[in-house]
Structure formats: C-alpha cells, structure tokens
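Recap from last week: sequence in, structure out.
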Amino acid sequence: MNDVTKQLAARAQGPVYAPGDEGYDEHRVGFQLLDPHRPSVIVAATGPQDVLAAVEFAAGTRSRLAVQAGGHGLAAPVEGVLIDTRRMSGVRVDPRARTAWVAAGATWRQVIEAVAPYGLAPLSGSFPGVGAVSYTLGGGVGLLARRYGFAADHVRRLDLVTPDARRHEVTAGSDPDLFWALRGGGGNFGVVTGMEIDLFPVARIYGGSLFFDLEQAPDLLDAWRRWTATVPEEMTSAVTALPYPDLPFLPEPLRGRHIAQIQLSYAGPPEDGRRLVEPLRPIGPVLLDTLRELPFTDSGAVFDEPGEPHAYRSRNLLVNDLTPQALAELTKAAGPSAPVMTVVGLRHLGGALAREPRTANAVGHRDAAYSVSVLSPVRAGELEVVRETHRDALAPFAGNAVGRSLNFTFGPLTEDEIRSAFAPADYDRLTRIKARHDPHALLHTNHPIPPAR
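Predicted structure tokens:
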C-alpha cells in the first residue's frame, strides 16, 4: 500500500485493500465471475463517510470510480477505485407510512425479511440476492410489476454522493432533474448511499412454476403469449427455456430435456390465481408443478434461479409484440443444437408498468409489451461464439423491437445501444444532467451515459 493509499485508509472507517492484500480478491469479485474488477484500491465502505472519502480520493488521483454490491450486473472492470457496499446493509421500516429506508449494499432478501413482519412487501426482483439499490436505479421489473409498476416508480428519496464529493438528499422537491435521472438512469450521476421506498400490503402470493418439455409442447411460447392477453394486472408471469443436461443432481423429470418453465406470481386470492392458470395446463404434459400459495418471504422460489456465482453474458430486447414465427425461431436458435448453452427469458410487461408514475422518471419504453432476453454461461474461448449466438437468437424480434432493458443486459454495450434504452429526448436530458454532475466521467458504470458535449 503506497503513501497515498495509506492516507485513504487513515480516513476510512471500513477496511481499505490494495492488490496483494489479504481480502483484496474477496472484495473485488462479485456474482459475475467473467472479467472481474481489477482496482488499484478497494474501500469496503461501512457508511456514507467512507463513500465520501473514496469519492474524494478518486477525484484527487484522477482515478475512475466504480461501485459494487453483489456484482451481478458487472459489464466492464474498473482499474481505479472500487467501493464495495456490502457492509452497508441496513434496512429501517416505517410500517405506518409503508416505507423502508434501504442502505446501498442491502439485498432484496434483507429488505423482504425486514418488512415481512408488518405484512408488507417491496417491489423486489426474481432473485432476492440482487442488490436493492442498483436494481432500482435501473428500473426494476419484479414479481409484483404488472400490479404496481417499476421499482423506480416508488422511490421517495435518495441519499447521494456526487463526483464533486458533496452529499445530497435528493427528492422531487430538492432537485427534480437529479431525482428524475437517478430513477431509471442507473448509477451514472453519483454514488447512492441509501434510498427510501414505498412498501405494499402483500404478505402472500400464489406463485411458482409449471415445467414442460418443448419437444412435447413445441408451441408453448406462443400459447403463453396468447394466454397473457387474457390475464389481469395482478398476474405477473415469465417463461424461461433452456436445455437441461442429464445430470443426477437435477430433478429426474427434467433431465436431458429442452425445458420451458412458466413462472407465475399472482397478487390476489389464491383461488383466483388457480383459476387463471388452468388454461396453461393443457399446453402439454406438465413435468413438474410448484404452484402454491406462499409467503412473500419465499418469493425467490417462483423463478428458483441459481445462487452460485458464475461467468455469463446476456442481451435483451423490449418488443411491442411476440410473433409466432419469431418465437419458433427463438426456440430453435437457443435449443439443444445451439453452439453454446443459451437460456431464453420472456417477461410479460404492461399493466402498471405502462403507466407514468406519480412523479416522472427516466425509465424508458413503458409501451413495451414483452421483454426478450438470452443468457449464456461463458467458458474460456467462447465469448465470441456467445455473442454470435445471442445476435442470431434475437434477430427475429428486430422488427418489433422498441428498445432494450439495461437491467437485463449483462455485458458491454455501444453508446447507440445504451441510447436505445431511452426515449431520444430523455437520453439527451440524461447526458445534460451527466455533464452537470460528472463532467469528467469519473464514474465507471455498467452502461455509461456520456456527458453532453
């Protein structure tokens, strides 16, 4: 550790790590194992003062600055200063106001468990291990999305350290531009140290999955699409399709098959949920059925996503419709004969997601009807094959594409691709706000918005 870094360590309350220190690798590597951060210094922040010290250090040494909680969305590594926020995991609940204050490194699981004793739930995502703040800054489409909207729609306040090392309490009244940009524009404008969010009176949901073999039900994706046109806003659903290897630790009915998993979350009476789901069962033989009434604390079981860190890349498109032909081509392109294992993810949007929130924000393409994503694990030497596979899989949807979701894109994008996540006027406004608060692009984010020239 050099003298300059030692000065930072003397100011910070949390640990500071340099390359070669014990604990350095533990803090630089997150859930995404592909090309992790290689920082010159890591600040394991314990509170806003540590964040402020790290920002001042980065600005003073002209180093790029990145922030990592769980590290799920990492797109490109930083070689400058990394703030690890995992120690900032506090959650404070106000059950009377139905709000929670969530610190920068708290996961959705920690928020869910803190608010559940009051019969409340946040607008959390399909994987409870994801950081709540970073998820929300990118928009946030979760299990209650069609009923209540984007997570970013229900933020009341954000505590922020801007690149000029100033602390702000950002609300609609204190700084309307920054409040608009932070909710949906990602981490491009400062380091959020905490946020106040709305909670909702949801203690239990009817949810889980139905598993089908796509060889036995080749039209399943289109059948699900037709079904989504009939359901109320209380029903949020998705489909994940992937080839399952024939391995003994997997459920026996799924081994060696091309599986489609219809994932369902119904925020209403369970008997209504069961009735709404019935039209899906005749699509084909149901190999596995996990649908049940469950407490929201078990909401991670709906998608039942893997919890082990791994290396992966993903691309996404938002579309106004899903055509039967495009879905059939997707099934083939991402099937067992694909060059690399490819996981298809379709999500039904609309409902409250399509409506403007009480206070407008930067979330783009509310008119999208569906989200289409492809994700692949990446092994050594496969990165270019993964890119080509993803391009081919999404190509049939280009004619119906309205943009993309940055939260569902795990990997670097071009400036034009990032621009496509927003309405043109909104993107221009974001670049102007970026120029005001981070004119030298100190912040190293997953999907960077450049300052206006």
